[in-house]
Design a protein that fits this description.
Length: 78
Amino acid sequence: MKNGGAAVRAWDGAADQIQSAPTREVDSTAAGDSFKTGFLAERMQGATMPESLRCGVDLAAQGITAHGALVAPKLNKA
């Protein structure tokens, strides 16, 4: 479900909610695709639901800061 700038919510036995940092939107093309990519990549590597949501939110936020969907990811991964 698209949720724009609102917090992302998920249920996996417990409710999780992740809010993105304020981001200057230039072009929202493929923001949802970016979110899904970050989220699924983390889940497939065994990350928790909150960790996966955070990755999806961060990648989508980066993707909307430039025109088109061609922004190199800069994820803060510990």
